[in-house]
Specification:
The chain is of the alpha/beta class. 31% of the residues lie in helices and 20% in strands. The protein folds into 2 domains: 6-116, Cobalt-precorrin-4 Transmethylase, domain 1 (3-Layer(aba) Sandwich); 121-258, Tetrapyrrole methylase, C-terminal domain (Methyltransferase, Cobalt-precorrin-4 Transmethylase, Domain 2). It has helices spanning 22-29, 42-45, 68-80, 99-109, 121-129, 159-162, 178-187, 214-224, 240-243, 253-258, and strands at 6-11, 33-36, 53-56, 84-89, 113-116, 141-146, 167-172, 195-200, 208-213, 230-234.
Length: 260
């Protein structure tokens, strides 16, 4: 009788393989089977042994070729076959990655599993651009939110709380709804001139960023035709990128600093 294997829900970080944890790196090198998302970079996939089974279950907006329940069933099936399974997710498995749903499915099926945290996309992006998400006297809190809901569901957020000028907002997967998000924030009192930024493919060689303001962000992000994944950062801390030397004045921060 084949003994039950084990599943590791592993965070791949924002894309740069140097940002993997040591534990994630070790697990990738010894996996029997890999179940991975679309946002995992090719450089990280190259760390998996050639003989390991690879199953792509990636999703993108409006296109979910492998439903979540099938992903859950795949993890259970592979583990019951005695395999060491790495379920690899961009960022952190428990940060907008449906890792909780998969953990519940594994627990219900009696499959041993472990969660290996990863550097979140927000942390990786902020570090690469040298933007502190909190900063004394500027931002006393930070809030992460997903920019989309289940199909057909409206965005139902605490807009009043999110519009606090002393809070940094980091929006995941918000490209399709960024116009509604920015409109709601302004309608609930957040200054249209609040610094804002869109970052595509953060920490990867093709990373691009757009510096803007809350009032202009949606139109400029659409005009820039950014490739997903796109992360949005909204808040006064964005101004610090000019002082810290991460972004050139040509990228729009000179106007922000001059306006202070």
């Amino acid at each position: 009788m084949t003994s039950v294997g084990r599943v590791f829900l592993v965070g791949a970080g924002p894309g740069d393989p140097d940002l993997l944890t040591l534990k994630a790196w070790r697990l990738l090198g010894s996996a029997d089977a890999l179940v991975y998302d679309r946002l995992v970079s090719p450089e990280i996939l190259d760390l998996v042994p050639a003989g390991a089974a690879r199953i792509d279950v990636g999703k993108q907006t409006g296109n979910h070729p492998v439903p979540q329940n099938e992903i859950n069933d795949t993890l259970v099936r592979l583990a019951r076959g005695g395999r060491k399974v790495v379920r690899l997710k961009g960022g952190d498995p428990f940060m907008f990655g449906r890792g909780g749903e998969e953990a519940l499915a594994l627990a219900e099926a009696g499959i041993p599993f472990e969660v290996v945290p990863g550097i979140t996309s927000a942390q990786g992006t902020a570090a690469r651009l040298k933007i502190p998400l909190t900063h004394r006297g500027i931002a006393g809190s930070v809030r992460y939110l997903t920019g989309h809901c289940r199909a057909g569901a409206a965005l139902d957020f605490d807009w009043e709380g999110l519009s606090d000028p002393n809070t940094t907002l980091v929006i995941y997967m918000g490209l399709a709804n960024i116009r509604e998000i920015t409109a709601q924030l302004m309608a609930h009192g957040l200054d249209p001139e609040t610094p804002a930024m869109a970052v595509a493919s953060a920490t990867r060689p093709d990373q691009t960023q757009l510096v803007s303001t809350l009032g202009r962000l949606a139109a400029q992000a659409r005009a820039a035709d950014l490739n997903s994944p796109v992360l949005f950062i909204i808040g006064e801390v964005v101004r610090l990128a000019a002082t810290l030397g991460t972004l050139s004045h040509a990228q729009g921060l000179d106007q922000m600093v001059a306006a202070e």
